[in-house]
Write a structure and sequence with these properties.
The protein is mostly helical and about 230 residues long. The protein folds into two domains: about 120 residues, no CATH class; about 80 residues, no CATH class. About 50% of the residues lie in helices and about 5% in strands. The protein is built from eight helices and three strands. Strands 1-2-3 form a three-stranded antiparallel sheet, with no helix packed on it. Strand 1 and strand 2 form a beta hairpin. Helix 2 runs antiparallel to helix 3, helix 3 packs across helix 5 and helix 4 packs antiparallel against helix 5. The radius of gyration is 23 Å and the shape is elongated.
């Protein structure tokens, strides 16, 4: 930056001021991540989004701890970029295993939401996650499960908990996401032969689809057992 350029000089002083606040101000217990993040997530999200974001937060929290970032104002823009690289490597001692770049960016999306809340709560002055413009990797097409693979999966699931078999069968026959297979039985109408899903990006709305005939015995059994949900 050039000291004789007013705009750049102002930016330099603002950066200096923010760094000074970040380093020297005493840390209040209320601004620590562990004091507010869990409550924020539980108040804002319902299942299954809540469980997914709590898992993302577990990985974010591991990164913050290992880098000594106790409160939001200590997080810098370059450290946010470091997180994307860090998540693509294995950290078994922290319980974090390597993921794709796109998964790391998805977790960073949660960090951006949390930092917005931190700004609104006066825990920091700005959101270092904003407008990073990190490019996603191209998504590779996922191969279809063959009939032979399906039979192998079903055989393996015989010794697994029942909810896994229920989830897999619904996903296999309806062609839906696994996250959509945990649903109230009231979303299945055996008389009309329909099933309703809360699809990706529209969790508060329903989409109705024809029920696969192969799933009718399963849903009849679940209802006979008095269940409210598939699992």
């Amino acid at each position: 930056m050039h000291y004789d350029v007013a705009a750049e000089s102002r930016k330099a002083w603002e950066l200096r001021k923010e760094l000074a606040v970040r380093e020297k101000s005493p840390i209040e217990p209320s601004e620590r991540w562990e004091a507010w993040v869990d409550r924020f997530l539980e108040q804002r999200y319902g299942e299954p989004t809540l469980s997914r974001y709590k898992n993302s937060w577990k990985n974010l929290w591991a990164f913050l701890r290992v880098h000594g970032i106790c409160v939001p104002r200590q997080l810098s823009r370059q450290q946010v970029r470091d997180f994307v690289d860090w998540r693509q490597r294995r950290h078994a001692e922290m319980g974090c295993y390597e993921v794709s770049k796109n998964t790391a960016l998805h977790e960073m999306k949660l960090l951006r939401v949390l930092m917005n809340e931190a700004v609104a709560s006066d825990f920091c002055n700005s959101n270092p996650c904003a407008r990073l413009d990190i490019r996603k990797d191209p998504v590779t097409s996922k191969p279809r499960i063959t009939q032979a693979e399906h039979e192998k999966i079903m055989h393996s699931l015989e010794v697994e908990p029942e909810w896994m078999r229920v989830s897999y069968l619904i996903a296999w026959h309806q062609g839906c996401r696994f996250s959509e297979t945990c649903l109230p039985l009231s979303d299945v109408d055996l008389a009309k032969n329909t099933i309703r899903f809360r699809t990706k990006g529209r969790k508060e709305e329903f989409d109705q689809f024809p029920l696969s005939p192969a799933l009718r015995p399963l849903f009849k059994r679940l209802r006979k057992e008095g269940r409210a949900r598939t699992f």
